[in-house]
Design a protein that fits this description.
Layout lengths: L1 H33 L24 E2 L4 E3 L8 E7 L9 E7 L7 E2 L9 E3 L4 E7 L12 E8 L10 E6 L9 E4 L3
Antiparallel strand pairs: 1-3, 2-3, 3-7, 4-5, 4-8, 6-7, 8-9, 9-10
């Protein structure tokens, strides 16, 4: 019996040894296979250019005109301009500002571009800006800048198409207008 007992004992040891090896293989095996300390060096250069979209500006087509009206009543600034391709009258914002240090163009309130503009047969527009809307902005000897700006649906705005006007001294006498952009 000693032969059989030792034979059983060695099979028990062998099975125990195989079970431990199998357990170690299941636990440590995937870590050994997936874990690596490999590394590499590679240099690559990329070059590119970032360009912001530019909203095209409206253009002035003729010299503007100051129309004094009768004794200064009904005085207006007449502006001749065109839309950039792909834009409509609804895309235009009219802004005004007095000349001077720190003066900022602000939307002209109480003004309807569509109601004060005439579409000409050649695709251009003639717009009259009544000076009574400009209130105190266009007074004795002061100069007023009126600008058309294209506003894209994203909120970005174009450069201005601008004119400057002076109402003159009294009742529109000596009033004038000049284009600031082309």
């Amino acid at each position: 019996m000693t032969g059989r007992a030792s034979s059983r004992f060695s099979w028990k040891k062998a099975r125990l040894f195989l079970a431990v090896v199998a357990l170690l293989a299941l636990v440590a095996g995937p870590a050994a296979v997936n874990g690596t300390l490999a590394g590499w060096n590679d240099t690559k250069e990329s070059h590119g250019e970032l360009i912001a979209a530019k909203v095209p500006a409206p253009g002035l087509t003729q010299d503007c005109q100051f129309r004094p009206g009768l004794l200064g009543l009904g005085a207006r600034v007449r502006i001749f301009w065109k839309l950039p391709d792909g834009y409509q009258l609804d895309d235009i914002v009219v802004k005004a500002s007095t000349s001077g240090l720190g003066s900022v163009l602000a939307p002209l309130t109480g003004f309807s571009l569509s109601g004060n503009s005439t579409a000409n047969g050649d695709g251009t527009y003639t717009t009259d800006v009544p000076t009574n809307l400009l209130g105190g902005l266009l007074g004795l000897g002061s100069e007023l800048e009126i600008a058309f700006v294209v506003e894209h649906e994203s909120g970005w705005q174009s450069e201005t198409a601008a004119v400057a006007s002076n109402a003159g001294l009294l009742a529109g006498i000596g009033g004038n207008c000049r284009n600031l952009t082309s």
